[in-house]
Every structure is written in structure tokens, then in C-alpha cells.
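Supplementary material to the annual report.
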Amino acid sequence: MEQTVERTMRQTWAFVFRGFHFFRRYLSWEIVFSFYALTTSATVALIGVAAADYQLTLTLVVGALLWNFLSKLYQEIALSIALERWEGTLEYTFMAPISRLVHLCGVSLAAMIYSLMHTIIVLVGLLLFTRLTLNGANLKGVVVVLMVSTLAFVGLGLMAAVLPLMSPERGAEATNIFQGLLLLVSGVYYPVDVLPRWLQPLSYLSPATYTLSACRKLVGIGNAASTEQLLAGASLSAVVPELSVLVLMGVVMIPTGLWVFGRVETWAKHTGKLKRTG
Amino acid sequence: MSHPAIEVRHLRKVFSKRAGLFKSRVAREWALDDVSFEVARGETYGLLGPNGSGKSTLIRILSTLLIADGGEVRLMGHALPEEHAEVRSKIGRVSVDAAFFKRLSARENLLYTALLYGLATRPAELRVMAILEQLGMEERKLSVPLEEMSRGMQQKIAIARALMVNPPLLLLDEPTTGLDPKSRRDVQTFLEQLRRDEGTTILLTTHDMAEAERLCARIGFLAHGRLVAEGTATALKRRAGADNLDDAFIKLTGEELLDEEVEETEAMEEV
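Predicted assembly:
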């Protein structure tokens, strides 16, 4: 039993180990990606600064930070298979004696650590562009919501990860379209009710909608009691409805993602799609 | 009861591909057609055939990466695809293209594999060092990114990766193709030692008749997905009435070992 646990931990750690060395070896690209993420986030946040509206600025900053975290998380998981196909290592990972659950948990853990680091860099950078105070914001509550919403995003990522397995090039393209759609419908920088009526139902299907709604309440955005110096962040109990939906989405999406992954893996083994050029 | 290392019975694999102007026609190509053979534990068995003959497809099925359309496969007594988890912990594979994360160093790639197999990194690293020393590679090269290594060095790292987990069964898909003569000799000598010292079973696919004759106790000729002949090199030459294995191959299969055909699974699509 102890040996099995140790072995599983090592196998999970393999993906974090690989991610760390990727980060190190592609450091110049990481700097470029972080710089780009920071400048685009700052550009959005400065719209609020220009309007001299701290609530708007806060809305945009929270939106930019959460989107940085959630989109990176989704992207890292969704493109993990595509990356291995490009490198040609996919067959070696798939023939290793590791259960698909542990494999995908490892990929998700590495993605979470990477996304968190990336978001912290953007957060520190944004503080240079805005003079926002977070006094009174329920930051512990924000962390709880982020952790819970990761479950749903991991599930989404797992479902999207199979697309490059089915079609190497078009699959990677489809994951980007899906990510763009999430950005559009989740109300990252605006309330979802400004979306065209026909598009609004999609916002209810996106976990990011609930994450953003909960985090805004916890930070104190939209609360009449909030002032520029002291925010009136809500308690965690005020976001129980959003948390419940996120938990439900995670409970549904992770097993669904694993099931879809398993089905597509079997299909790929029938058709020879695991091969780099296949 | 000790099972043979590899038991393959009436194995079939067909790939389908859409063809024609509007991709409305479905072309079916047999990659493997009723292939049967056995490899005893500790034996080195060679599969010879031109590109497109089904060698890589066969290796992929044995590696749990492809599911056959018919027939039976058992490795070390475990049936595929049902017992793939047991099989995976008993096999190592080296393919013609040494697939690695090319920006990472050899050490980083190998330690990643060690962790993926649930091994402690230090003992795995020591084993790798010992293997690479036997293959004539210096330890300092381990810190070099794979993309800066020659093909011969990459292939030696690939062999070390496959053997790091000490598998009782090694599947080698053209491991020496494209290597310089010295690297080729290093690899061949190492494989001989491995079989002799550790009793590892080796299934080797190759185009190189001299290599097959040197390393393999028995050889199978694969052509158009069919195993047309098998036996010792001497028996095959005698049966064909040929002086060398090249001529025996041509006489028994009716074709030459040329690299003209495309790999069988390329651009194939399930329909």
C-alpha cells in the first residue's frame, strides 16, 4: 500500500518535474508570454483608471487576473496532448505503466502550479499600473472559489485535450476557439446581461461565469458599502450558490472528461492516431 | 508454467483510408494479415521486411499502442489488450525515431521517464550511467539538450531509457537505422551482452541482414503484412537455396528490402 502511494506520488510528480524543466529551458518564451499577458491586462485595467472609477477598475483587474489563471489552466491541460504529439513522445507516455487518472492528475497539478505562477506575475505587474487597495476584500474566500472552480476547468481541459488526439492540427485550433467562446460568454470584463439575448444561455454553462460572480462579491465589487479605501467583501456564505454550481460542474465534468478521454484513447489505438504523423 | 515471452496467433490489422476526389471511397489496407509466431524467453528474434511490410504496426500492437482487429497476442503470459497494465510494466521499446523532449537534457528526459514509471530517481540514474558507459557514452553528455546531440547519441539515450526500468522484454524497432558504423557496433555489442547477462528477450525489427544474422537466434521474413518464412539464418538460406540472407529474403518473399513504401499507419483514417 505504502509502495503504491509512493509510486503514485512519483508518477504525479513526473509532470511537475517536466513542467519545471520546460519553464527553465523555454525561459525566454515564458518572459515573452508573461510580458504580453501583463500588457494586455494592464491595457484593460487602465480603461477603468481613465474613467476614474475604482469599481470599474477593480472589476477589470479581477476579470483580467481570473481569466489569466483559468485560461492558462485550461490551455495547459487542453494542449498537453498536442505538445506530446509535436514532440513525438506521446507513444512513450501512453505505454508507461501509469493509470490515465494519475497521468491526467499530474498534468492538471503541473498546469495549476504554472497558471498560479503566471497569474502572480501579472498581479504584481498590475499593481504598478493601478493604485488599488484590497483592504476589506475577502481574499481567503477568493482562494477557496479558485480552488473549487479549478475542478470544473480541469474537466473542461480533459475534454478539450482529446481534440488534438483526433486531429492534430484542427484539434489544437478547436481548443482555441473553445477558449475564445468561454472568454466571450463568461462576463470576464462585463456583466453577462449585456450579451445578446440569444447568447446569454451559454453563459450559464461556463464555470468561469460563476467563478467571476463569486470573486466579485468576495472582493466587494458592486457592494454599495465599499469605498475606495475600504472594500466591503462578502463572506463565503454569500457565494454558496455559485460555489454549489462550481462543485456540481466539477463533479460532472471531471468524470465526463476522463470518460471521453478513455473513449478517444481506445479509438486512437484502433486507428493508429497515437503516432506522431498519424 | 512458464509462458513464451511473445505469443502471436493469427494477428490481423487493417487500416482504412478515405480516397478519391471527394474522399468518398474507402480504401482498406492490410497492415498485418494472419501473422503467427512465438518468441521464447531469453531469445532474440528478428523481423525483417521493407518499410510498409507491417513491422512497426506489429511492434505498436505489442507495445499496447495499437489494438489489433483480430487474432491473439500474449506477452509474458498476459493477453492484449485486456491486460495492458501488466504488459506495460514488463516491456521497453526503442523506435527508429528517438522521441524525446528535444529542448530538455538527456538527464531531464531520463529522470522524467523514471518518475513516470514510479522509480526513485537516484537508483534509476545510476543504472542509466552504467548502461551509457557500456554504450560508450560519457556522463557529461547527459546535461546536453537532446536537440544538440547526434542521432547516434540520441539513440543510445533511447536505449538507456528503455532499459532503465529493467524490462524482461525489449521491443526494438530498427534501433540502428541511420547510425554510424561505430555507434551501430556499440549498440549491437550491448544487445548481445544484455541477452547473455540478463536473459532479456529481444524482438528486433531491422533492414540490416548482417545485424539480424549476428544478433538473432531466429528470423522472420515479413512482406505485405504476412510472415512468409521463419527460422534460423542458416535454415532460411538453405530453404531458399541462397548464399546469403539478402538473396534468401528476395527468393522467399519475392521482393527486395528497399525503403520505397510509406509507413503503414501514416495518414490513415478510421472510417
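The first strand of chain B starts at residue 6 and ends at 19.
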